[in-house]
Write a structure and sequence with these properties.
- This protein is an all-alpha fold.
- The protein folds into 2 domains: 63 residues, Arc Repressor Mutant, subunit A (Orthogonal Bundle), CATH 1.10.10; 172 residues, Tetracycline Repressor, domain 2.
- α1 crosses α2.
- 29% of the residues are buried.
């Protein structure tokens, strides 16, 4: 008579992993709710534990500290913003859009995400949480948006559409050498002047995107913007023109006449 077949060794582990994933999902959902209700600085593991109906000590089996939980939310937010930008830029490229238009589409996607998740946007692009030091885990997710930005500039430089109208200056020593490495350009002293200028000017792309969204989310455009969508496009296009990305504001439905940014 055959004996009972042993249980697969991976089954209990799989069950534990599923249970852990479910608890982590509930934990993060609670943390997001408290982020909205109380703000990042007031995030508390004790409050999250109450939501889950467990003792505070039980939560520590899943996150080591309040800062560790905050890091999970930060990584989640950076990944969401990066994913939105990547998806929009990729779709624009597949349509055959020029690099400048890809950046506008990416910027619109990040804005749409931010308007839908303002507290997550504020967590990663707003006022830093006092006493919190972001670990290395947050770097790669934060760079996803920057990768889209750099990719657009590289594509525009390659196809000859990058035509800067901004000021001429010495770009050397303005950014950390690691930025050149991240952009795949090698050492700073090996990079041509026009490429170094484009790289340093790219900071205005990021600043204009975050600034435009921040101004809108925090109410600074109240009684100022009659058409927030259109004004956002103009803001992005104006900043982009300075570094050489000339956006066609006539592209897309309902955007009116083409702007001459050349």
């Amino acid at each position: 008579m055959l004996g009972r077949m042993p249980e697969p060794t991976h089954a209990p582990r799989g069950a534990r992993e599923r249970a852990r994933a479910e608890i982590m999902a509930e934990l993060l959902a609670s943390a997001r709710a408290h982020l909205v209700a109380d703000g990042a600085a007031s995030l508390s593991l004790r409050a999250v534990a109450r939501d889950l109906g467990v003792a505070s000590s039980a939560v520590y089996r899943y996150v080591a500290s309040r800062d560790a939980l905050l890091t999970l939310l930060i990584v989640e937010a950076y990944d969401a913003a990066g994913s939105a930008a990547e998806g929009a830029a990729r779709a624009a490229e597949q349509r055959g859009d020029a690099p400048a238009q890809r950046w506008l589409e990416a910027a619109r996607a990040v804005r749409a995400w931010a308007l839908a998740h303002p507290h997550s946007f504020e967590l990663v692009y707003g006022t830093p949480v006092r006493g919190y030091r972001a670990p290395a885990d947050t770097v790669a997710p934060a760079l996803r948006l920057w990768s889209v930005l750099v990719g657009v500039l590289v594509a525009a430089h390659a196809d000859g559409s990058l035509r800067p109208v901004g000021p001429v200056y010495d770009p050397r020593g303005l950014v950390d050498p690691g930025v050149y490495a991240f952009a795949g350009l090698g050492a700073e002293d090996e990079v041509p002047d026009d490429v170094a200028l484009a790289l340093t000017r790219s900071m205005s792309l990021f600043a204009s995107l975050v600034g435009a969204i921040t101004a809108e989310l925090f109410g600074h455009l109240h009684n100022v913007a009659a058409d927030a969508d259109r004004l956002f496009d103009v803001t992005i296009a104006t900043a982009s023109a300075g570094i050489g990305l000339h956006v066609d504001l006539g592209a897309g439905a309902g955007l009116g006449a083409t702007a001459d940014l050349g």
